[in-house]
Specification:
Amino acid/polyamine transporter I, mainly alpha
Length: 409
């Protein structure tokens, strides 16, 4: 039994890390806003979106195992120059926005501890840079996975908040939809933060770097499923905790301190500290993953040497780009007067709007028999995957139409 289970446990890493990184600063802000604004009304969406995450993550991991190439490599080799430029530009815009949001999360957490962002953000940037550039891939991965333990606090908080579990189940499986801008805006943000484009980039590149082959891919699939479920459970409990405490009191999550108030029944005067610890852990986790995923994307697209296990002399462009992205993200986060929570949620609305471009590119690649051979999507799997892409596109278009209509009033 141990011999059969051990390979599955050893495979845990890229999938778990990528999905957990989705519960980052912007994710926490979005989930808290959903619970505070609509109570349990968006729980149904999290269940559906979690399933969608599993489907998209699995396709990306499978492409990495079968082709031995990252997403950007495949895009460059398969699509026309203009299509490649559009896909990669979309991903770059989305990723830079999220990198900034992670350092904004560090700033928000630090201010809850009474530490100036002008001290905390530079220290966090140096910490992440040293962690990635001075360590091997396996060591970096273990550190990031350890930081995800901070998310467990939200599960306990949701139970101790004593929600109405009957209502939780009813809202999850018999939802009431709201055809209004705020509801749709948060729905898009939930999609954008949970099916974030960088997660697919990261998991595919990680699978390639770990040398996963089609023969042992079943272990990686297990990793993807475990990561997806664990991240989805944490997100659901964040919504439940904030819905049970903030929604009845009509508290709007516009600051980190307000988001922390959901933990008052659990931690009392230590609520802000507990929230800050989780926020800091989530932000540092994604602050390492995001620049790394973006650097992989750019290095693959341009054909440069890449890998966190390589030295500066072996991969100067890779290391230099990674450093530049961290400096850019930290620098923007230090701009005075930024509305932290609003920026965090707004970044993931943008992510949701840009997501269809990546989804259709993945579907084109995963169904290419010259690339994937017998490992292309089956008919049922394709039906689900195309359904995800179409629904996300329709929601994005609806939000754009409602936004423009609001401007014309």
């Amino acid at each position: 039994m141990r011999k059969r289970l051990w390979p599955y446990l050893l495979a845990l890493g890229p999938g778990l890390l990528a999905a957990s990184a989705g519960n980052d600063a912007g994710g926490i802000a979005t989930y808290a806003s959903a619970g505070a604004s609509y109570g349990y009304g968006l729980l149904w969406a999290m269940v559906v979106v979690t399933i969608c995450v599993g489907v998209v993550q699995e396709m990306s991991a499978r492409m990495g195992a079968v082709t031995g190439k990252g997403f950007s490599d495949l895009v460059r080799e398969t699509f026309s120059l203009r299509q490649t430029a559009l896909i990669l530009l979309t991903l770059l815009i989305a990723n830079i926005g999220i990198i900034v949001s992670e350092f904004i999360g560090v700033a928000a957490a630090a201010e809850l501890f009474g530490v100036s962002r002008y001290v905390a953000v530079p220290l966090a940037a140096v910490f992440v840079w040293l962690l990635v550039t001075r360590g091997s891939y396996g060591w970096v991965e273990k550190i990031f996975l350890f930081l995800t333990l901070a998310f467990l606090a939200y599960i306990g908080a949701a139970f101790l908040a004593r929600p109405d579990w009957g209502r939780v189940l009813h809202e999850t499986f018999a939802p009431r939809l709201h055809l209004e801008y705020g509801y749709l805006n948060l729905l898009i943000a939930l999609i954008g933060t949970t099916i974030s484009p960088y997660m697919q980039l990261y998991i595919q590149s990680s699978v390639v770097e770990k040398g996963v082959t089609p023969e042992d891919y079943r272990y990686t699939r297990f990793d993807v499923v475990v990561g997806t479920v664990s991240a989805g459970v944490v997100a659901v409990f964040i919504i439940i905790a904030t819905a049970a405490t903030l929604y009845p009191r009509h508290i709007v999550v516009d600051t980190a301190a307000n988001a922390a108030r959901a933990l008052e029944p659990v931690a009392g005067h230590y609520a802000e500290a507990l929230f800050a610890i989780g926020l800091l852990g989530a932000s540092l986790l994604a602050a390492g993953v995001l620049p790394l995923a973006t650097t992989y994307m750019l290095s693959e697209a341009l054909g440069f040497e890449r890998g966190v296990s390589r030295s500066w002399s072996e991969a100067p462009i890779f290391m230099g780009t990674f450093t530049g992205l961290i400096v850019l993200g930290a620098g923007i986060a230090l701009i005075p007067g930024l509305p932290l929570i609003q920026v965090l949620v707004g970044v993931y609305v943008l992510n949701g709007l840009l997501l269809p471009v990546e989804l259709f590119a993945i579907l084109r690649l995963i169904n290419d028999r010259e690339l994937m051979g017998e490992h292309v999507n089956g008919r049922t799997y394709n039906f689900i995957a195309w359904g995800i892409a179409v629904v996300v596109s329709v929601l994005s278009l609806a939000l754009i139409v409602m936004t423009v209509a609001g401007w014309l009033r």
